[in-house]
Amino acid sequence: MTARIPYLNARLQGYTSTIFSEMSALAVATGSINLGQGFPDTDGPDLIKRSAIRAIEDGHNQYPPLNGISELRSAIASHHKRHNGLDFDPVTEILVTAGATEAIASCLLSLCETGDEVVMFEPYYDSYAACTAMAGAQRRTVPLRAPDWSFEPEALENAITNRTRLILVNTPHNPTGKVFSLAELQVIADVARRHDLIVVTDEVYEHLVYESPHVSLASLPGMAERTITISSAAKTFSVTGWKVGWACARPELIAAIRSAKQFLTYVNAAPFQYAIAEGLNQCDDYLVEATALLREKRDLLAAGLETAGFKVLPSHGTFFLTTDITPLSDEDGHTFCRELAQRCGVVAIPSSAFYDDKASGWHFVRWMFSKRREVLEEAVERLGRRQ
Ligand code: PMP
Ligand code: GLN
User: Fold this and answer.
1) Which of 1, 54, 124, 351 is deepest in the core (most CB within 10 A)?
2) Predicted local distance difference test score (pLDDT) of residue 38
């Protein structure tokens, strides 16, 4: 629970600081290697960096259109067609947002009535809970069970009530690295269709998959009309500071979420939109290479953590992997991570931050592996000296 802040309304008490800010500050204070907050330590392809600079020099510095520039919307449409088999009309079915974060916030703020319920899988990305609270809605969680992070179909069914407005899905999944199987996506789709629910699917790690190809929920039968598919340039191109994201859905859903988006940021950074359009159109080869490199880094960190005595759980996607700390410590993950920074100079994220049911998450710790090889090697060496 975060500190109580005077003046802050009741809905947001409990969300006063994020675990990412806390642990990144700890990394700075202790001079630690930061394997906590999810940002890579090398930037994306030169092509898109040059493109952003060129866009500024070419004078793309005023408000872009509310939906996003047409070049980017077309590039998103053809990317979705090529990679995910999804058809979106760039004019009516694509909305560019300030990162996936704003797309998620806009969905929850525009689709939920006060008291509606939002179903999400636990552990869940922290902004889902905060934005559900901002919308005056309630979350209902469906547990993902380690080590494979599977869920009971009955648990999903039981989470649905007559107040359920939408199901929030995240695949590949932060923090676990789980990639929902086709069978699991079919279970979710079946529940959504039978109860006539909207599904918001956060697919920001769509290109960071190591074992099987990414499957978009909207590609399943009967799902295109009820799914909002969210993604972002942040992880795909290693530009987390650019904050270019997008939501794709049928025109009525886009019209609803645009109503919220226009009063949050109105529009977002014009030059970066030109650069990401170019990236989506021209960087398919880069994406394949980047994923192969990340797979090696995942394996390097997993092996190092195992040697250091952690129980490493499988990660099939994202740039995170999860460890069980019980072989090393009786402490909870938060205490463990704070001590680890002091003792070893390495920072990770206690996974309890992603749980309502703290008891289920207390012994898990999340590690981020999109760092230079020598940084991961140094981190592993420091962890080996822990005792
Ligand atoms: N969803 C998930 C699951 C994330 O991990 C993140 C953060 N990396 C976001 C959304 C936010 O993405 P963006 O930086 O594009 O706002
Ligand atoms: N998505 C990133 C993570 O999970 C953090 C982004 C943020 O700090 N909000 O680490």
Assistant:
1) 351
2) 94
Cβ of 38 below 6 Å from ligand 2: yes
3-state secondary structure at position 82: helix
Q: Which of 19, 23, 39 to mutate to test the pocket of ligand 2 (most atoms within 8 A of CB)?
A: 39
Virtual torsion, Cα 379, 383, 384, 386, nearest 10 deg: 150
Architecture in CATH for domain 10-44+285-384:
Alpha-Beta Complex (3.90)
How confident is the model over 75-87, as a mean pLDDT? 98
Task: Find out whether the beta carbon of 170 lies less than 6 Å from any atom of ligand 2.
Answer: no
Domain boundaries, the chain: 10-44+285-384, 46-282
Of the candidates 347, 315, 348, 309, the one whose C-alpha atom is nearest the C-alpha of residue 329 is: 309
Q: Sort 97 into a burial class: Cβ within 10 Å, 0-12 / 13-18 / 19+.
A: buried
How many angstroms is it from 262 CA to the middle of ligand 2?
23
Structure token pair of residue 344:
């070893």
User: Which ligand has its closest atom nearest to the C-alpha of 366?
Assistant: 2
For ligand 2, atom 4, name the residue with the nearest CA: 38
Predicted local distance difference test score (pLDDT) of residue 2: 67
CATH of 46-282 given 3.90.70.10, 3.40.50.720, 3.40.640.10, 3.40.50.2300: 3.40.640.10
- Is residue 126 lining ligand 2, measured as CB closer than 6 Å? no
Judge if the beta carbon of residue 52 lies within 6 A of ligand 1. no
> Does the beta carbon of 236 sit less than 6 angstroms from any atom of ligand 1?
no
